[in-house]
């Protein structure tokens, strides 16, 4: 489950039923839980959670999918991670975020959750099934969300991503819980393969569950094709998957089409596992915490499909005593950054998250390679002169990190650099420099910058530290 998911632990059904009494008749007297194989009990549970936690009154038809809130919440939280990955650098003031939910279903669960969780988000929900479309519109209207959620009718002949056809409509993300199966036979085969009956009944109708042109991989494959036309009109295209094999097929498709900027995540809830893939035509890169499944064993089926790392850690393995204090490391980092030609660095004000030692860095071009460096005065000489370039640069751009670029040309590289005390069991040495690639086309540039800064900071720290047991 997502670490911010408030439903990590099962709810107390009795307390929930007190807030939403229609749930009471479905509580088992002994266990005080509901029977998840009972469709009506499931519907009351979803209604109860949405009512108690979001003040939303949902109308859920009997013969359409009943969305489990904890599972849907996982996906919205991941979308939050994606949308806010670059907020610290880009946003000088809050702006409205726009998203599309493809196949929103009768409850319009994703748009309603997203808009209730985020006051500055607006959503378009698309739906092809007339009955779900009518219910979705009703659920949006009865919760007074018509000015923020627009439910649009999709057609079989039209594009899945048709809201992007309007050139003046730009979106931050699209999300999708696609029809999973390719045929009714596949639904039956999979149920038989599982041997045991599913622990929760599925109330989905054929139109919700089946996409005859290849199931979920076919559906999202079409989204990938269409996204090639729309490119950056939507910043992040995403979809959820019920089968791991679909994830690998979509990643193969992205690679074949030279779309290198993508992310994979996994949602685990009890015995249910789901995956999601995001891809983008922008040069914005996500932190590994959002772009890669953590702690994946190397022999895992998905391991070869993971995107390359956007978060690089450089350990500072300091051999001399005394170990430098955290503030000293931050000073050296700021001095090293300030001395690289064409690099602008700004230390984030400590107050923001109570965190020190976080720098936002922009580089116009590679000025740190060996040949470029040969032209420069030696670092040590300049540091000895007490030059602290970063300080003066920071004061020039004190309005915020989004003003990092002073020139007109777009930077070739934007990244953050975080000084972190290293945990002894993770790495020998006391500090880590954690580089987070945020913007840029050239991955090599980012990697060489991280290794250059890591090396320089290490050398400077050793040079400024008294040798073990020796004279200062
Ligand atoms: C698995 S259901 C997901 C419903 C809802 N989003 C949820 O998570 O509970 C898939 C939905 O996609 C809809 N759908 C299928 N093809 C579509 C298309 N081309 N455009 C829009 N919606 C579509 C189905 O009618 C169904 O409501």
TrEMBL record:
Q: Which InterPro entries does this UniProt record tie to the protein?
A: METTL16/PsiM (IPR017182), METTL16/RlmF (IPR010286), SAM-dependent_MTases_sf (IPR029063)
Write down the Pfam families for this protein, in alphabetical order: Methyltransf_10
Could you name the Gene Ontology cellular component terms for this entry?
A: nucleus
Q: Which Gene3D superfamilies match?
A: Vaccinia Virus protein VP39
Question: According to the UniProt record, where is the region Disordered?
Answer: 386-408
Alphabetically ordered keywords of this record: Methyltransferase, S-adenosyl-L-methionine, Transferase
Residues that coordinate or bind S-adenosyl-L-methionine: 72, 103, 127, 177
Which GO BP annotation is one of this protein's? Answer: rRNA base methylation
List, in alphabetical order, the Gene Ontology terms for molecular function in this entry. Answer: methyltransferase activity
Q: Which PANTHER family match?
A: RNA N6-ADENOSINE-METHYLTRANSFERASE METTL16, SAM-DEPENDENT METHYLTRANSFERASE
Q: Which family does it belong to?
A: Belongs to the methyltransferase superfamily. METTL16/RlmF family.
Descriptive protein name: U6 small nuclear RNA (adenine-(43)-N(6))-methyltransferase
Report the source organism: Agrocybe chaxingu
**Higher taxonomy:** Eukaryota, Fungi, Dikarya, Basidiomycota, Agaricomycotina
């Amino acid at each position: 489950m997502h670490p911010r998911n408030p439903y990590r632990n099962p709810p107390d059904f009795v307390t929930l039923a007190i807030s939403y009494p229609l749930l009471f008749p479905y509580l088992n007297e002994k266990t005080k839980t509901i029977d998840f194989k009972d469709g009506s009990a499931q519907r009351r549970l979803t209604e109860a959670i949405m009512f108690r936690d979001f003040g939303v009154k949902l109308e859920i038809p009997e013969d359409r999918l009943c969305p489990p809130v904890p599972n849907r919440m996982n996906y919205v939280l991941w979308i939050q991670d994606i949308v806010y990955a670059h907020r610290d650098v880009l946003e000088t003031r809050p702006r409205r975020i726009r998203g599309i939910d493809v196949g929103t279903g009768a409850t319009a669960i994703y748009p309603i959750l997203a808009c209730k969780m985020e006051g500055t988000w607006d959503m378009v929900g698309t739906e092809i099934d007339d009955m779900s479309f009518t219910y979705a519109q009703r659920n949006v209207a009865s919760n007074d969300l018509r000015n923020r959620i627009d439910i649009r009718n999709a057609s079989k002949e039209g594009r899945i991503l048709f809201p992007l056809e309007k050139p003046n409509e730009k979106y931050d993300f699209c999300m999708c819980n696609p029809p999973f199966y390719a045929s009714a036979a596949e639904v039956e085969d999979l149920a038989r393969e599982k041997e045991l009956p599913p622990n929760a009944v599925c109330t989905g109708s054929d139109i919700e569950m089946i996409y005859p042109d290849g199931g979920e991989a076919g559906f999202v494959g079409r989204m990938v094709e269409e996204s090639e036309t729309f490119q950056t009109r939507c910043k992040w295209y995403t979809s959820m998957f019920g089968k791991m094999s679909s994830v690998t097929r979509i990643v193969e498709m992205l690679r074949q089409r030279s779309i290198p900027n993508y992310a994979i995540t996994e949602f685990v809830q009890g015995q249910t596992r789901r995956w999601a893939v995001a891809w983008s035509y922008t040069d914005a890169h996500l932190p590994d915490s959002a772009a890669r499944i953590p702690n994946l064993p190397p022999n895992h089926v998905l391991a070869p499909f993971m995107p390359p790392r956007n978060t690089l850690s450089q350990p500072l393995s300091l051999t001399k005593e005394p170990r430098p204090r955290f503030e000293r490391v931050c000073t050296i980092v700021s001095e090293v950054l300030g001395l690289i030609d064409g690099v602008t660095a700004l230390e984030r004000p400590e107050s923001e998250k109570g965190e020190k030692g976080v720098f936002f860095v922009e580089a116009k071009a590679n000025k740190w390679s060996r040949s470029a460096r040969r032209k420069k005065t030696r670092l040590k000489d300049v540091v000895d002169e007490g030059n602290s370039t970063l300080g003066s640069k920071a004061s020039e751009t004190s309005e915020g990190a989004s003003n990092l670029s002073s020139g007109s040309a777009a930077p070739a590289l934007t990244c953050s650099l975080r000084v972190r005390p290293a945990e002894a069991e993770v790495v020998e040495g006391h500090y880590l420099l954690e580089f987070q690639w945020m913007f840029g086309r050239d991955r090599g540039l980012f990697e060489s910058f991280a290794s250059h800064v890591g090396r320089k900071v290490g050398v400077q720290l050793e040079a400024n530290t008294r040798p073990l047991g020796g004279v200062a």
